[in-house]
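Thread title: Can someone regenerate the structure for this chain?

I was given the following input by a collaborator and told the matching structure tokens would be attached. They weren't. Posting the sequence so someone can regenerate them.
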Amino acid sequence: MIPFQNESNKDRLERIIRNEILPKLESIVGAQLSEFVDLLLQSSKLKNFAKDHYLEESRSFEDGKLFYITSGIARTFYYDTSSDKPIISRIWKKHDVIFDVNSFQNEEDRVETVQMLEEGELLTIDYYSLKNLLNNFPKMISCVLCLQAERERYFMFYQRLLKLSVEDRVRLYLNDNPTLSNRINKDYIATLLGVSRSGFSDAYAQYKQGSDKSFAK
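Best answer:
Regenerated them for you:
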């Protein structure tokens, strides 16, 4: 959503909530009371974050936040102790919601770190504000369950993706995310897809050739 000229942060926050977020919530739980909208506005913050900024690190569940991306790209990753390397679990883009549902629901420490890969703007809600929101409007828990279901669908998709050839992994992932390779370091995509940098480069070259031929038709 493009900022209006001379639009204040508060006005922009309200516009994003009413135009982008509320329609999605209402498609799940129906029309919302004005009291809920008011509390959602009070509970949310809109901030800009620089590239490489760590939004949150693996810590207590009470330090966790919900992030809604209005612009930019981020990654979630964790450290694999056996290889002593970061493992990227997902790359997130505009309109995605980054939220550790299991940590929030089970009050367990978070294992993943969230980092910006591109400068962006995010709406954030901290743990206690979200807890208060759900306590006051318990039917909104359905939205949390929908997020959990989406995470499970993505996990199944990702596991199937990793069983494919390197060429098919790169092709299918970039077909779903066509601009990603032009906006972030390709090493992040290679790591997510579980392929070497050289293997990704070869598969990416094939992908580009196929894309260029399709475009030329």
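The chain has a mean pLDDT of 92.
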